[in-house]
Every structure is written in C-alpha cells, then in structure tokens.
Design goal:
CATH class of the largest domain: Alpha Beta
Helix content: 10-25%
Structural class: alpha/beta
Low-confidence stretches: none
Bound molecules: nicotinamide-adenine-dinucleotide, lauric acid, zinc ion
Shape: globular
Strand content: 15-25%
Oligomer: single chain
CATH superfamily of the largest domain: Medium-chain alcohol dehydrogenases, catalytic domain
Number of helices: 11
CATH architecture of the largest domain: Alpha-Beta Complex
Order of helices and strands: EEEHEEEHHEEEEHHEHEEHEHEHEHEHE
Distance between the termini: 16 Å
Largest sheet: 7 strands, mixed
C-alpha cells in the first residue's frame, strides 16, 4: 500500500506520564513536512536514557511522548527539500544532528550541532509542532529527535543517515547510541595511542565499547572497573586486560584510586566514566597520571548532581573532559563505522543479549536491570 503523502497508523509505546507504564497503542504519524523524513523503524534498542526519562528523574523529560533513540529502519517518505536520503534507504536515526552549516558543525572542533537543538529539547519538530497524535487527536511529543518506540517516526533530515543496506538493521540500530558513544570516546575524543594505559569505570555497552576502541588503538593496559561481577565474562571479548570489582577486590587499606595508581606505576593515561555516578567521576579523574592523564566523562549523572575534586588535581596536569555520542559526527562518520563493523574490526552484534518483539517492550525495560544484560533489541513485525 502506498502510504506516501498520507498520515499513517503506527504501533507505538506512548509514555503518558513519568513513572507510569508505557501504553502500547495505535497512533497517527503525520506526513513529513519540508526537510523531514518519515522512517519505518524496523529495530530499536532500549538505552538507560529512555528508562531515566520514563522514571521522571530527567528534569527535561516532557510528557506525553514517544521515547526511544537507538533505532534503524527504512525511509518511507520524505518532505520537500530532502536530499540526503530517499524512500527505501536503510537509515539510522541520530540524536546528535549534523547540519554541516551551523557554527558548531563548521568549527571542526565538536560533533554537537545547533540546527535542531532548541526544538529537539522541547520535543517538537523544527517548526514547533509534533507529527504524532493519539486516537483522541492529542499531540504526543518527540524525544531526542528520534522517537524510535513507534513503527513510524518523523525526524529532521539533519538527524538521519543512510547506511549500507547489506548491514543488518539490528546491528545498525546499536550504532545509533551505545556502541558508537564508547568506541568514539576512545578513538576520537581521547584519541588513545599505542601503549597507552586505560581504565574504564562501568562495563556496560558504553564501557565495553570504550575497551574495544582502546584495544583497536593498541593500549597496553585496559582495566575495567565495575561493581557487578556478572560483567566480568565480557572482559576478554572486548580487549580488557584486568577487571576490578571495588566492592570486593580491594585490600583494607586500598582505594580504587590507590590500586589503579599502583597497577600502572603512577596513574592512567586515560580514564573514562561510563557509570553516570559523580563519585566515580572523581575517582576516574584522580586515577589519572600526574602531568598528562585525561579523564573523559561519558556517563549521564542524575539531575542536580555535581562533580568535584581538589583544583590541585588539575593544576598538576590532569585534564577533565566530556564526550557526547563519542565525538562522532553522525552523518559524515556513520558510514565508516558500518564498514568497520562489516570487516569485523568493530564488534556490534556481541552487545545484543536479548531480542524481543516490540510488544514486549516492558520486558525489555526490565532486561536493563538484569546483571549481565547489555542491549535488548526490539523488532517491529
Ligand atoms: P549500563 O547500565 O549498561 O552500564 C553501566 C555499568 O556501570 C553497569 O555495568 C554497572 O554495574 C556499572 N556501575 C554502576 N555503578 C558503578 C560504580 N559505582 N562503580 C563501577 N561501576 C558501576 O549503561 P550503558 O548503556 O553502558 O551507559 C553508561 C552511561 O553512559 C550511562 O550513564 C548512560 O546514560 C551514558 N551514556 C552517555 C552517552 C553520551 O553521549 N555521553 C551516550 C549513551 C549513554
Ligand atoms: O547540543 O547542547 C547540546 C546537547 C547535545 C546532546 C548530547 C547528548 C549527550 C548525552 C546523551 C545521553 C545518552 C543517549
Ligand atoms: Zn550543525
């Protein structure tokens, strides 16, 4: 059936209120306007940010909305003026847009883009309106410019990239967030070099992806730190050389900082926070080598949290920085990541620990809390 130019009916998980269960229902997805793209989502994974916003802990979360930001599918139709994708293209939705024209994009210094920033944060399309409505005709907000928990979604053309159609969409969808974030943080934000020492706090999808990036660069030591022993089984696969559980592997007079400094003869060249815990962020900074160690904050902390350390840590040469989406420019660099995946140098499928039909999205959210789960991929029929 030709759906182009017409509103479509779509199965979606609607988040009506923070802290309330998702409502699986049919919604209407409007025709894409100028510079917009309507995508039939085939695969979407669930990330902690979706759970964080649904829980109500995200002060910027607005409801009712369609969550989901790690998704891939096929372009169903495009609005006027769209030139970067066409119907039938296999695509990944991008929560970090790339317009190529704004001050950020032209700077060559960041992957952040200003093009849709303000409206994306408010849960609407660039013209200030939503493309989603429920059966009662009430508008539903967009989320992170993606809203992949709907079989059909509409995104801005700057927020979507076409990928090689021979790459499985379930793998492509993971490149929409977790894997790219960790891998990019190691190879791009930190630019880890051969022989460098690396410590990663948090061995989830993001942390393990940092590990594989550090391994690809030839790091000499890759130390994973996690309070959950069930992640230890992944350490070899992603290139880690040691695993420390600070709740049980430290001697009485040791701290995680003193242990890491001792293991590396003075501290790490690079550390990464992939937990979102501000105390861990401090430990990560203070485990860095005096004079040059760099600590990269990737984890998203709960609302109202602040980081602290003694300023002397910075005076004596440690550097604290952050990374969003691994510093990767979604539209110009996603193709390269897909190629790396296809030639086997970037692990992606290894992160899929659960597969479910989309209607099992609630169980998918529960998977996030089981010890050894990395990513659950949901499939639309
Ligand atoms: P995850 O929950 O799968 O992994 C987090 C890991 O940290 C878990 O294994 C957990 O056991 C461990 N952990 C929790 N507290 C710890 C502590 N005190 N010490 C050591 N380990 C601890 O999450 P993920 O999907 O890998 O994401 C990691 C973080 O990155 C989250 O905060 C997420 O919101 C954030 N994130 C940031 C970006 C970005 O662009 N900056 C993108 C995606 C995700
Ligand atoms: O440009 O001001 C801005 C914000 C860009 C958004 C970057 C988001 C990084 C963290 C996302 C959390 C995980 C999906
Ligand atoms: Zn831009």
């Amino acid at each position: 059936m030709n759906t182009q130019g017409k509103p479509v009916t779509s199965l979606a998980a609607v988040a009506y209120e923070a802290g309330k269960p998702l409502s699986l229902e049919e919604i209407t997805v409007d025709v894409p306007k100028a510079h917009e793209v309507r995508i039939q989502i085939k695969k979407t994974a669930i990330c902690h940010t979706d759970a964080y916003t649904l829980s109500g802990a995200d002060p910027e979360g607005s409801f009712p909305c369609i969550l989901g930001h790690e998704g891939a599918g096929i372009v169903e139709s495009v609005g006027e003026g769209v030139t970067n994708v066409k119907p039938g293209d296999h695509v990944v939705a991008l929560y970090t847009a790339e317009c190529g024209k704004c001050k950020f994009c032209r700077s060559g210094k960041t992957n952040l883009c200003g093009a849709v920033r303000a409206t994306q944060g408010k849960g609407v399309m660039p013209d200030g309106t939503s493309r989603f409505k429920n059966k009662n005709g009430e508008p539903l907000l967009h989320f992170m410019g993606c809203s992949t928990f709907s079989e059909y979604t509409v995104v801005a053309d700057v927020s979507v990239v076409a990928v090689d159609p021979t790459a499985p969409l379930e793998s492509a969808c993971l490149l929409g967030c977790g894997v790219t974030t960790g891998y990019g943080a190691a190879v791009k934000t930190a630019d880890v070099q051969k022989g460098d020492t690396v410590a990663i706090f948090g061995a989830g999808t993001v942390g393990l992806s940092v590990a594989q990036g550090a391994k690809a660069r030839g790091a000499s030591q890759i130390i994973l730190i996690d309070i959950n022993d069930s992640k230890k089984k992944y350490m070899n696969e992603f290139g880690a050389t040691a695993y420390i559980n600070p709740t049980k592997d430290l001697k009485e007079d040791e701290t995680i900082v003193s242990k890491l400094i001792e293991m590396t003869g003075g501290g790490l060249d690079f550390t990464f926070d992939c937990t979102g815990n501000v105390k861990v962020m401090r430990d990560a900074l203070e485990s860095c080598h005096k004079g040059w160690g760099v600590s990269v904050v990737i984890g998203v902390a709960a609302s109202g949290q602040e980081i602290s350390t003694r300023p002397f840590q910075l005076v004596t040469g440690r550097i604290w920085k952050g990374s969003a989406f691994g510093g990767i420019k979604g539209r110009s660099e996603m193709g390269g990541l897909v190629k790396d995946y296809q030639k086997g140098s970037l692990k992606v499928d290894e992160f899929i620990t659960n597969r479910r039909p989309f209607v099992e999205i609630d169980e998918g959210f529960r998977d996030l809390h089981t010890g050894d789960s990395l990513r659950t991929v949901l499939t639309f029929n």
